[in-house]
Amino acid sequence: MQKFFSKLSGKEKNKLYIAIIIVLLVVFDRLFLGPVLNKLGMVDGQIQTQENSMKRDSRFLAYEDRINAEYNIFSKYLTKELGEEDIVKRDFLGSIEQLATKSNVSLAKNTFSHIQKQKDSLEYFTSLDCTATLEDMLNFIYNINSSDDLLKVTTFNMSPKRGAANEVKVSMTVMKLIIPQADVL
């Protein structure tokens, strides 16, 4: 090897040294610098992902008080534990009768119809036949729809009562919505 170097001229030696330096730099880049820069890029991506996640989480935490306040408002509509079906039906029909008495409505029929299970709730239905003055009937429907028991008139058919000038006869279906807490259903 010494003979090889001694035969080279000054310019050729410089070119050889430059070539060796370039080869060493390329080897250094491929063996050390490239993997380190790749790893740094991956770490930067993970940091960016974590920063975005923290920003999103901090936004949720900023709304925590508002979420808790809204939960407290709506928690009165959530059922803590589901009772027996017969008890729920009896309470449902009883609340309809109380609203009818309060509104001066005569119930001719108040029979439980069926239960419909939804994804996050239970819907109990009853069929009613009743008579009252138009004003009292409208108050009755309003009282049902504005009840804290989550009652709603789903269908109704109103017609004038024969022989009475100011009275109406109504057939309606009323629904009671039961929303169990997430761990109850």
Question: What tags apply to this protein structure?
Answer:
single chain, 185 residues, alpha+beta, Alpha-Beta Plaits, 2 domains, 5-stranded mixed sheet, rod-shaped
Short description:
The chain contains 5 helices and 5 strands. By secondary structure, it is of the alpha+beta class. The longest helix is centred in the first third of the chain and has 53 residues, at 10-62.
Can you characterise this structure?
Helix content is 54%, strand content 27%. The protein has 185 residues and is α+β, with helices and mostly antiparallel strands. It has two domains: 61 residues; 102 residues, Ribosomal protein S6/Translation elongation factor EF1B (Alpha-Beta Plaits, 2-Layer Sandwich). The model has no long low-confidence stretch (mean pLDDT 84).
Task: Summarize the topology.
Blueprint (H helix, E strand, L loop, with lengths): L1 H6 L2 H53 L1 H11 L3 E2 L5 H18 L3 E12 L4 E12 H12 L5 E10 L6 E14 L5
Parallel strand pairs: 1-5
Antiparallel strand pairs: 2-3, 3-5, 4-5
Q: Could you state the order of secondary-structure elements as H and E?
A: HHHEHEEHEE
Named at the architecture level, the CATH assignment of the largest domain is 2-Layer Sandwich
List the total number of helices.
5
CATH fold topology of the largest domain:
Alpha-Beta Plaits
Low-confidence stretches: none
Please report the distance between the alpha carbons of the first and last residues. 86 Å
